[in-house]
Known about the structure:
Elements: H1 4-16, H2 19-26, H3 30-44, E1 49-52, E2 55-58, H4 60-87, E3 93-98, H5 103-117, E4 122-127, H6 132-138, E5 143-149, E6 160-175, E7 198-200, H7 206-217, E8 226-227, H8 231-239, E9 244-248, E10 259-263, E11 270-278, H9 285-301
Parallel strand pairs: 3-4, 3-5, 7-8, 7-9
Antiparallel strand pairs: 1-2, 5-11, 6-9, 6-10, 6-11
Helix pairs in contact: 1-2, 1-3, 1-4, 2-3, 5-9
Amino acid sequence: MLDIRRLYMLRTVAARGSITAAAQSLALSAGAVSQQLAALRHDVGVDLLRPDGRTVALTEAGRVLLEHADRILAAMEEAECAVAAVKGTVGATATLAALPSTVAIIVAPALTALGADHPQLAVTCLVTDQAQLRELTLGTVDVVLGQHYHHLPETTPRSIAVSPLLDDPLLVVTAADGAVSGSDGRPVGLRELATHHLVVPPPTTDCGQAILQACQQAGFTPTPRYVTADIGAQLTLARSGLATALVPRTAIDPATPGIRAAPIDDHPIQRLLFAATRHTETTNPTTAAVIAALRKAARQNRTTHLPPT
């Protein structure tokens, strides 16, 4: 009989691209993972992995086994959810992956509420903007607070269930005493920013791509003076008058001094914040509690005012 833990290791190695990377994510030694995969190869009697440069790749047999492993692991999770639903109680642990830009306005209030409503639940929060949905499919996190920019194609895997939380527009952020169009908080035409010194995220990020496409639709290609994905750095540059930033509304603390924020009126750039879990037929009370807290915090965020002018 196949060992489900070895199947999970095979899936992790396939996703991570190497035994070393898989071992790091599993908190095991590379030798331990290799030993378990060798045992799995012995169980099925055929090679499952082959060298591929500095990484490894699945053989044809490995691809076939992985397809079945995905279904087996999904069935195992479905069984766990069904039992949890019968118990009807929120569990003891959960892991949430969240974007840095959502921590202050959504994540922190949600975790505070969870602590009050479900004191037995310990939530580990991984703040990262890298590959959250992949971690969700691998089972290393239980809930993802992710984003999708309306300018970009939808790429959510079918095995993921998405719960929309909040439409979150990007705002034009300038110094509070800046004498530029829109610095009084009124809507700004995106094409007006063609002559501004901009600070934007790298074009390899979703936000950077969305800004680039929106600017091109507005008739210009931005040549930013500053490039950083660090929203704190973006706001600092804007507050100092060195640059104009384009920042999601939820990432701006209303109490932040020295800045003004204005909506974009001609080519709005908007992201959808969502909570995602692995799709199961039966709702897991624990992940449902986490998502409910995120949804409540997102609803409260809709009443958040812009920074004072």
